[in-house]
Amino acid sequence: xxxxxxxxxxxxxxxxxxxxxxxxxxxxxxxxxxxxxxxxxxxxxxxxxxxxxxxxxxxxxxxxxxxxxxxxxxxxxxxxxxxxxxxxxxxxxxxxxxxxxxxxxxxxxxxxxxxxxxxxxxxxxxxxxxxxxxxxxxxxxxxxxxxxxxxxxxxxxxxxxxxxxxxxxxxxxxxxxxxxxxxxxxxxxxxxxxxxxxxxxxxxxxxxxxxxxxxxxxxxxxxxxxxxxxxxxxxxxxxxxxxxxxxxxxxxxxxxxxxxxxxxxxxxxxxxxxxxxxxxxxxxxxxxxxxxxxxxxxxxxxxxxxxxxxxxxxxxxxxxxxxxxxxxxxxxxxxxxxxxxxxxxxxxxxxxxxxxxxxxxxxxxxxxxxxxxxxxxxxxxxxxxxxxxxxxxxxxxxxxxxxxxxxxxxxxxxxxxxxxxxxxxxxxxxxxxxxxxxxxxxxxxxxxxxxxxxxxxxxxxxxxxxxxxxxxxxxxxxxxxxxxxxxxxxxxxxxxxxxxxxxxxxxxxxxxxxxxxxxxxxxxxxxxxxxxxxxxxxxxxxxxxxxxxxxxxxxxxxxxxxxxxxxxxxxxxxxxxxxxxxxxxxxxxxxxxxxxxxxxxxxxxxxxxxxxxxxxxxxxxx
Length: 622
Description:
- The protein has about 625 residues and is mainly α.
- The protein is about 55% helix and about 5% strand.
- The protein is built from 31 helices and seven strands.
- The strands form two sheets. It has a five-stranded mixed beta sheet, covered by helices on one side.
- The radius of gyration is 40 Å and the shape is elongated.
- The N and C termini lie far apart (about 85 Å).
């Protein structure tokens, strides 16, 4: 810290109690100056020789036959006046960044100009400010902080503007020219602390980071901070991403709980003003501020009830950068009084903002400018958002109070650009079914319709066919597509299933088999038992083993026979289950007829069905 010493005489100011100051000399004092509630017993000659204002005040007091002067509102108060009084006496005074502005304002108030005496206090302080303080990075920040309590004097004397220009100029300078100390809390590189195995014992000077100045400015009050950042932006030499990093650092320092997405409401008005100021200072260039930071600001804006315009603009920007977000970023707590844990509606709106932005952006421009990287092209962005929302759905599915409609609506919002894999969506659906066991069949059917079984990986299919929470319809679909995948990879053709089964699959026929599927709709939406799943899996395994065995033998005739037998066994199991459910359903309604039974999947004879069931049970027990 820079400092300047004035005067050479020893300090002979004494204190008597809390509110009396006097000069300990043999010469009796001849004037009393009241600064607020403090009395100064001083001598006229040294004071009047340097202060034009005191000359006027003393002249006025003489006319009133009084040796006492009252000054109620003086910048800097008694402490600052004492500095000026000591200077008048020639006593040693030390000026530094903490007291120089107060001394300058009092000297101005007392009119200690060069016209009164050469080498007066105003001249000396101005020289100190221009030659030392404003050339020092940290001293300029300290001085700027002290100006707040000295307004409007510090503003009128241009101390504030000089500080702003000094700080902004240094923050905008090329990093190679930064020679002064600054605060930068970061993890040291291995080469800096000597722990690197490649370290050769020679320490190379580290490059100054572009955001070297952001932490020191966090000490400023929000009003001054706003003016500093505005001045830096006006100079136009600092990139938007560094400004964004500065605002992030300031929010982390000044908003308690900001890093955790929580704001302490012990000073509601103060923190709301702070958040609104940060929103106003955000760089306008796209991609200069991380999506994570924007989402934390959105949380704060909601908690502090910031203006609707600010929140809408923030949501628009987040929607443009949504592919950069993480699931944790999206977990915004629901407002107090809501039944759900998280605010799903906000995320739904953000996804809609993303969809709107994607539809309005030129594909070529989007590909090369989205987040400043080609990897965030239009298709890649949509896949990232789809994956992001799948993960978010899995998290909110744990909420026992989450309505099915909110889950489904959010999932349907990204259905148009879902990726080649539905594993994430399957995990979310499974989590919802696990945490909400009381939902009815129609709700279970509705949520499972979101998933395309053809887009499940082998691992997800393995889990799905053992999942007792899924409707039978979904289990059969998974088994069928696994069968198709296995036979296709082996170079075989997938055995055909009856039309009543194909009707259950995406793109299946709904022609003559419509009545059958309608009659068994409720049964297909029921949850299969463990025995049902094991039996279906056994037949699928037999089919795959039979197909692979025929490939190893290389006999086309044998291969064809195996396919027929395996397909027949698979059909028998599935069809017998449908036939039994259909039969039981019609018995309840008294509708069994020859035409119904002939239209139902009864082409598989009873003996074959019986033997299939027997083999299936044996396989399951083996």
